[in-house]
Amino acid sequence: MIIDLEQQLAGHVFAFMLIFTRIGAGVMMFPGIGEAFVPVRTRAFFALVVTFLMLPILLPQVPVMPTQISDMTWLLIREALIGIFFTSILRLIMGMIEVAGTIVAMQTGLSNAMILNPALASQSALTSALLSMAGIVLIFVSGLDHFLLRALMETYIIFPISAPFPLGDIVEFFIRVVSKSFSVGVQMASPFIVVGLLLYLTMGTMQKMMPQVQLFLVLIPIQIWGGFFLFSTIISVMLLFWLQTY
Question: Is the pTM of this model over 0.90?
């Protein structure tokens, strides 16, 4: 009886470690929870809570604890890679906002206006920081965070614990999302690209007609104020388009 209890306890501890490895790797870079300004202890505690909640549901999927250390290590590494893959996809989707914000800053003459971006814990363009924080707030306001937690749990349906590691499918899907993230970012900032192109064409034509006038000094304030007006007008449309893509 003692041996059975020891085996059951060891099996449950192994199952908890296996589930926590994937969930912990996913939560550490989760939008909102996994930001750089959130303490590591807070993220780890959140991962522990989610693991405890999912443990009774996922326990039947957990295989018998291997007797070899190498097999156990491979299972833990595999779960960590799947969790990192899941959260990397989320980060790439968040990167759509960064692409759009950078393009907006370049087209409005604000590319040198740098500010600390709390989401990245580094310097970024003013518009990128604003869109990043607005995107994180929008995720929680719209209830998308619940959908993301559900998606994390459904990775156990797509990638069961005992199934072979689908490296080829993961790489193919990752490349597709990278391409899609850049494409959506450009689409979000497309009004600024069009307006900037028209502005530079107009400035080039007028400069050719009146070479003695310093049009660059005249049009820069127009570019900045026009960019502010356009940005304040369509920022809600940009974020809703991004949220729909998310």
Answer: no
